[in-house]
Amino acid sequence: MRLLLVEDDNHVAAALSAVLARHGFAVTHARSGEEALQALVPEGNGFGVVLLDLGLPDQDGYEVCGKIRKRTSTPVIMVTARADVRSRIHGLNLGADDYVVKPYDTGELLARIHAVARRTVPDDAAPAGDDALRLGPVRIELPTRQVSVDGTVVQLTRKEFDLLALLAQRPGVVFRREQIISEVWRTSWEGTGRTLEVHVASLRSKLRMPALIETVRGVGYRLVAPAA
């Protein structure tokens, strides 16, 4: 997923960009509000999330957030040292999707990025009728928990469906192993890693699409949307 990092401190931006890159993000760095607004033309410019620091040299960060929201529906996470409730409410009222207070834990930041990203359905996971996702020949019907490939129904276990549905919400986004275990199995990573690997292998086999779920070494998995 492409991420726009709006941060005027080059040292902070370099360190954070390195962390984000290790977790599968393609990071573009904007050093000012105006640079960020230009990067989002036209209509979001393909970014999945904007990580917006409020302490910018040219414009107030809140003002930049308001301008971003007028131009695009791309999720915005505000990053600031202002911890008071009034500041958070103001940011959310301007259209921010989340608010992270410095200093923050990197794991929490990554979880928040994934969370806001999943709230929007991308073009390559287009709705295929009510409450359904279509990814190339794969159709995932959420209410009936039915999956089909080229019109042929594929029988999946409950956890196989939950895993596929999770990854399919954001094609191309890398989901960390810990995150998948937490959301699908509702437990911690410890002792469950092998179970995840087995379910991924089973999905690849049943769907007869080994390239559909890509392993990102040392991080987790992502769904690679096939051609229609």
UniProtKB/TrEMBL annotation:
Domain annotation OmpR/PhoB-type: ranges: 130-225
Residue ranges of the annotated DNA-binding region, renumbered to this chain: 130-225
Name used for this protein in its record: Sensory transduction protein RegX3
PANTHER family noted in UniProt: REGULATOR OF RPOS (PTHR48111), SENSORY TRANSDUCTION PROTEIN REGX3 (PTHR48111:SF72)
GO cellular component assignments: cytosol; protein-DNA complex
The Response regulatory domain, residue ranges: 2-117
PTM sites of type 4-aspartylphosphate: D53
Organism of this sequence: Streptomyces apricus
InterPro entries in the record: CheY-like_superfamily, OmpR/PhoB-type_DNA-bd, Sig_transdc_resp-reg_receiver, WalR-like, WH-like_DNA-bd_sf
A GO term, aspect molecular function: phosphorelay response regulator activity
